[in-house]
Design brief:
3 helices, 3-stranded parallel β-sheet, alpha/beta, Leucine-rich repeat, LRR (right-handed beta-alpha superhelix), signal, single chain, 17-stranded mixed β-sheet, binds 2-acetamido-2-deoxy-beta-D-glucopyranose
Length: 340
Amino acid sequence: MTTTSLITFLLILTLSLSTLPIPSFSQLCNPQDKQALLQIKNQLGNPTQLASWNPSTDCCNTTWQGVSCDTDTKTYRINDLSLSNLNLPKLYPIPPSLGNLPFLEILDISNILNLVGPIPLAITNLTKLRYLYITQTNISGSIPEFISRIQTLVTIDFSYNKLSGELPSSLSLLPNLVGITLNDNSFSGPIPESYGSFSNLFTSITLERNQLSGNIPATLAKLNLAFVDLSSNRLEGDASVFFGSEKNTQKIILAKNKLAFDLGKVELSSNLNTLDIRNNYVYGKLPEGLTALKYLHKLNVSYNNLCGEIPQGGNMQRFDVYSYQHNKCLCGSPLPSCKT
Ligand SMILES: *[C@@H]1O[C@H](CO)[C@@H](O)[C@H](O)[C@H]1NC(C)=O
Ligand SMILES: *[C@@H]1O[C@H](CO)[C@@H](O)[C@H](O)[C@H]1NC(C)=O
Ligand SMILES: *[C@@H]1O[C@H](CO)[C@@H](O)[C@H](O)[C@H]1NC(C)=O
Ligand SMILES: *[C@@H]1O[C@H](CO)[C@@H](O)[C@H](O)[C@H]1NC(C)=O
């Protein structure tokens, strides 16, 4: 190449580059991701809250509400999407085009009352998804078995929806799962036995205000839960599986069920700060170990069949009669003293 032809070549190159639309060079957003977002917006009836999703701007610019791109690895694929507080013009299903955002790690759909219908198969396309939140919507149907195909899931929160049916036993196939939050739905049937084989990192199970029934599986004794809330269901029988001095348990909330087991026989985690078993058929004595719990600040054992003297000392004097009332024969401060 001669010098002249090189200069001519460079000149032509510069001219042709400058005539190309600049935005396509300056946008960090992946074009497929952007197209998927615009489809999602359309599938939700173009709500005014998503006006910032403007096709002529860069979707990785923070002006796109609820959208985050992966700046760490500099791939700029959308890895975090939050669709929250949207007023949809009419009823819509969860947008199937979410399945076209394959790099999502966090999907948070919350407080969208006009969102209805089932959890769509399209989300199995999200093979990097770690945190899945679908809360405060009117979605219904059961939790599909296909959820367990998203092997990367760490937490699932489907609280405050209209979901129903039995809890899928296949959730125990998720190797990285550490917590499930399914409170305030209409789930029924038993807690699956397979939940005893959640990984040893599994720490939180929140199922309150559903219609779960039957016995709590003995297999759950293997878990080391930090938080368990099963209140306001129809669970029966033994719940001593959640107790144990070798566990790191902080909160045990089992209120308003039909549970019946000997509380005098359980051993307590030294980290326990909340024990609420009100309104059950729990019998036996209060464990003496309650007085040794440094962090105990919430205790309610009222409306059970407990008996014997209330252990004195430690944090026990914090609690008044309302924590102990309506048992078979509990006695001692703050209740009337035991007859000798
Ligand atoms: C984001 O968009 C605004 C408005 O279009 C623009 O002024 C700003 O420079 C953009 N920021 C980035 C980081 O691209
Ligand atoms: C799943 O992803 C593939 C490839 O990214 C895409 O072609 C397909 O339409 C997606 N399926 C659904 C149901 O979103
Ligand atoms: C959705 O849920 C809200 C709150 O639970 C309720 O007031 C509303 O009527 C529901 N809408 C539909 C369409 O079901
Ligand atoms: C304990 O539970 C009973 C029965 O539901 C309730 O009336 C009482 O207020 C509760 N006590 C405390 C201290 O929360």
